[in-house]
Amino acid sequence: PPAADVERTRDAVRAALGRARDRTRALTDCLDDEQLTAQHSPLMSPLVWDLAHIGNQEEIWLVRAAGDRPALRPELDAVYDAFRTPRADRPALAMLSPDEARAFVDEVRRLSLGILADLPLDDEDTLTAHGFLHAMVAQHEQQHDETMLATHQLRRGEPVLHAPPPPGEGSDEPLPAEVLVLGGPFTMGTDADPWALDNERPAHLVELGPYWLDTAPVTCGAYQEFVDAGGYDDPRWWQPEGWAYVHRAGLRGPLFWRVEEGRTLRRSFGRLEPVAQAEPVLHVCWYEADAYARWAGRRLPTEAEWEKAARHDPASGRSRRHPWGDEPPRERHANLNQRHLRPAPAGAYPAGAAPTGARQLLGDVWEWTSSDFTAYPGFRAHPYAEYSEVFFPSTGPDPGRSDGVGRYKVLRGGSFGTDEVACRATFRNWDLPIRRQIFAGFRTARDPVPARDPVPARDPR
Ligand code: AVJ
Ligand code: FE
């Protein structure tokens, strides 16, 4: 690649690493040592574990692998190995103190920026082998920052995070409730995106029939109707494991909702407020999303349906990087980067709409899909099997293990707490179908009804 491109790549990666570190600092410097070492939920690590784990992974992949330098703190590998110790057991680990963790991540960063400055990124091989590691590490830190943001949401006590509210609804005219995606093939996944992680690869053609998709994510108001209609008491809407789980756990609505004197309130980063009816519903598990869809006479979209709606440009037949095109996310496109601490109302961000008119596919809330997290045909683990491969059903842990009810389900699109480096229309997230602490909502889909929806069965091109 030309020298100017090489320097642009280097600058982009350096900026991404810097932005991730600013955010990590902001999420940890706002709490005292007691709060940083406490476990706010058995679902989460102490925040100081995430902090030093970020540094340990950066040391492994940038200092040792990309830089080929000797290990700085090899004795920390065991403490910060996510697979060795489940989150619930991490408080018992001999962790670095907050100040030791800060000094460690600073030292690693000093080394990794030096390595980045010297990387010969001018041939394709170095670029893909080593430049990729820096891009991966920046995404890794941002993913943990979003996890730390979820820990902040679970934490009790006075609010410490603040942000302005997101923009309102995009227009005065009501949007159509759903959009039609015509049948036909589209390119799913990518070979070319330098930021794409192993599970987004390779690009492959997928043929889909036509389907209708919600224009925007399902709102709190719509979800409240499901709750009020006795949705949690009617087994007809639930998968059998979901019904069993909801009853065992005593769920009556989304996590962080509570009913007080007939009013439904929600806790949001330490503030109690009325549930915002127009906002996408947040903190529901896959079983709740699936049950709502069945109650509404609909279904969750498959992962392929979500991605086609978010990328396929019927005019050119190409798959784009983002719903609005290949341009990077700007403030007008999507609610990302923790600029706000909540989703924007359904229908916001008209500039970020996909060709079909679907809105808010990126940002606001992660969207549950009906699909299990599996490998694309031709998948190759890169650079390590523990990023994706161990979570696939054929290679992963027994789907029936201790906490696990079912396999990992795919979420798409990113939330208000996702950074743009870890968000694109090919990006795949996954979690167990019982998880609700992540910033997850959903939208629904349906098949066309031949008599009522006289639509062309295929994309006419
Ligand atoms: C992609 C969000 C499911 O947090 O388990 C962080 C990201 N992988 N460190 C996770 C990840 C290793 C991963 N998710
Ligand atoms: Fe990690």
Automatic annotation (TrEMBL):
Cofactor(s) it depends on: Fe(2+)
Q: Which UniProt keywords apply?
A: Iron, Metal-binding, Monooxygenase, Oxidoreductase
Question: For the region Disordered, what residue ranges are annotated?
Answer: 308-332
Which residues does gamma-L-glutamyl-L-cysteine bind? R87, A88, D89, R90, D431, R435
The organism's place on the tree of life at top rank: Bacteria
Record Pfam families: DinB_2, FGE-sulfatase
According to the entry, every stretch annotated as the DinB-like domain falls at 17-148
Basic and acidic residues bias: where? 323-332
Name the catalysed reactions: gamma-L-glutamyl-L-cysteine + hercynine + O2 = gamma-L-glutamyl-hercynylcysteine S-oxide + H2O
Which residues are in the Sulfatase-modifying factor enzyme-like domain?
175-446
* Family matches, as InterPro entries: DinB-like (IPR024775), EgtB (IPR017806), EgtB_Actinobacteria (IPR032890), Sulfatase_Mod_Factor_Kinase (IPR051043), SUMF_dom (IPR005532)
- Which E.C. number(s) belong to this protein? 1.14.99.50
Pathway(s) annotated for this protein in UniProt? Amino-acid biosynthesis; ergothioneine biosynthesis
Annotated residues that bind Fe cation are located at H53, H140, H144
* GO MF term list: gamma-glutamyl hercynylcysteine sulfoxide synthase activity; iron ion binding
Q: Which family does it belong to?
A: Belongs to the EgtB family.
State its role: Catalyzes the oxidative sulfurization of hercynine (N-alpha,N-alpha,N-alpha-trimethyl-L-histidine) into hercynyl-gamma-L-glutamyl-L-cysteine sulfoxide, a step in the biosynthesis pathway of ergothioneine.
Q: Which NCBIfam families match?
A: egtB_TIGR03440 (TIGR03440)
Q: What is this protein called?
A: Hercynine oxygenase
According to its UniProt entry, this protein's organism is Streptomyces tardus
